[in-house]
Amino acid sequence: MNKYKPLVFASVLSAFLLSCSGNVPSVTTGSVPPPAPVLPVPSEAQLAWHEMETNAFIHFTTNTFTGKEWGYGDESPSIFNPTQLDADQWVSTLKEAGFKGVILTCKHHDGFVLWPSKYTEHSIKNSPYKNGNGDIVKAVSDACKRYGLKFGVYLSPWDRNRSDYGQPSYITYYRNQLKEIFTNYGPIFEMWFDGANGGDGYYGGAKEVRQIDRSTYYDWPTTLNMVRELQPEPKVLFFSDAGPDIRWVGNEKGRAGELNWNTISSDTLYAGKAGIEDLLATGSEDGKKWIPAEVDVSIRPGWFYHPEEDDKVKTPAQLFQIYLTSVGRGSTLLLNVPPDKRGLINEKDVAALKGWRKMLDETFKTNLTKNAKVNADSFRGNDKTYAAGNVTDGDKNTYWATDDEVTSGSLEIDLGRVQPVKYVLLQEYIKLGQRVKSFSVEAWQDDEWKTIANAETIGYKRILQLENPVTTNKIRIKIESSKASPVISAVEVY
Ligand code: FUL
Q: What are 77-102's pLDDT values in tens digits?
């Protein structure tokens, strides 16, 4: 018996089927395994954070009343008196603007705390606000629950008020405060550890310069483990210059790198390391850990409210550009909106946020690729599960992928009719890692393909604003190089 016979028969049969179907290889569904992940990949909590896209920062403390940016730590709590404070106004304004989370400065560098901590007198409990009975951390955390936003906290490690800053006892104090916060105001989605330390401060009256060794003094691993035990689920994400979950983007201008890898190696990052701003903005292609960049920037020149900056609130158009250079470069935007002395988000900021939201809604209202016909030059194993149509089906869980050895490829999208195109948006299915290293966009014009944009990374989301908007009926995305088979979940055109 010839053992090769069944094989010969099978290939004759498939050749016959091929000839019947006009030489198109047979297409199956669900028979081909998905591409292996390109490591590292985001955790569940990081993935959820990517999907939040825009969060708001709230800077509020004695600085709001003294006009400073960095309080010295000697402010009397008696100056803290927001007479119309309304956390619902803050959170509803931020919700309408589209933010999904809020991070509050529970304690800034001046050491003044916005909740009645039992560990310090430099506190809201000694202020005229609500006769010392106020609790702004609770008010904001409760408002976030009411409006369906996630709540995050900023607790400055540098404390210019504490007499023992620089001593081991201060670390105990800092951890005690974290215990209060995580026990009483959770769940907390993101914990912001600010790397700033300007040296001098009041320090309980010592009024001197204190330097600490940033890589050892705080003993972060112990603190992080303590917090993780306080809140095992949902997992809190730790932000700092060095991660471990989210990295600083290296500037406060609202810009991630055009080249932006979510991956970076911790040994190139450790806290306080100087001269790594560019690295923070771009990440590294061969980074060992998934530590995405967060773009923190203020709606005003300062982080705190100052009346003299009322006419310097960023315009909707400026905020829109910041959206493109943050979310549009695969990062998450953390936009600071500081309440004024009354304890309200100022009318100027409210107007700017409304205008910004309107611009975003109008610009991204009509996706020209919605359910559009798409053809790829190839798709994984000829299995429909990975077909090109997945990039226009509006489902974040489906994607186009190629065979393992194919690290380039193209997607041709039929827009149905000739239309003006200004923005092209792409998303990688980052559950399987960040892969694409370079790509281009072409438009069909005058009977040929013309390159209209070139870029490098995609990541969670990439939005290209075309320098010269085009009019076309067909768009082609060319993935030019990729770490492995490209895995693209969305292509949108506006
Ligand atoms: C910096 C701080 O020094 C600023 O005051 C502000 O809080 C900003 C978000 O981070 O490091």
A: 999 999 999 999 999 999 999 999 99
24 CB near ligand 1 (under 6 Å): no
pLDDT per residue over 55-64, tens digit each?
999 999 999 9
Q: What is the 3-state secondary structure (H, E, C) of 283-330?
A: CCCCCCEECCEEEEEECCCCCCCCHHHHHHCCCHHHHHHHHHHHHHHC
Cβ of 159 closer than 6 Å to ligand 1, yes or no, is no
CATH number at residue 456: 2.60.120.260
What's the pLDDT tens digit per position in 109-133? 999 999 999 999 999 999 999 999 9
Interatomic CA distance for residues 10 and 215, integer angstroms? 65
Whether residues 292 and 176 share a domain: the answer is yes
CA distances from 10 to 13, 28, 123 (A): 5, 16, 80
Which numbered atom of ligand 1 lies nearest the CA of 194?
11
Please tell me the distance between residue 183's alpha carbon and the centre of ligand 1 in angstroms. Answer: 25
Q: Are residues 14 and 71 in the same domain?
A: no
Do both 26 and 149 map to the same domain? Answer: no
Radius of gyration of the chain (CA): 26
Q: Is 294 near ligand 1, meaning CB less than 6 Å away?
A: no
Q: Which domain holds residue 448?
A: 8-33+367-493
Whether residue 286 contacts residue 40, with contact meaning beta carbons closer than 8 Å, is answered with no
pTM for this model (two decimals) = 0.94
Residues 199 and 258 in one domain: yes
CA dist 478 and 377 (Å) reads 10
Q: How far apart are CA 349 and CA 353, in angstroms?
A: 6
Q: Are residues 166 and 219 in the same domain?
A: yes
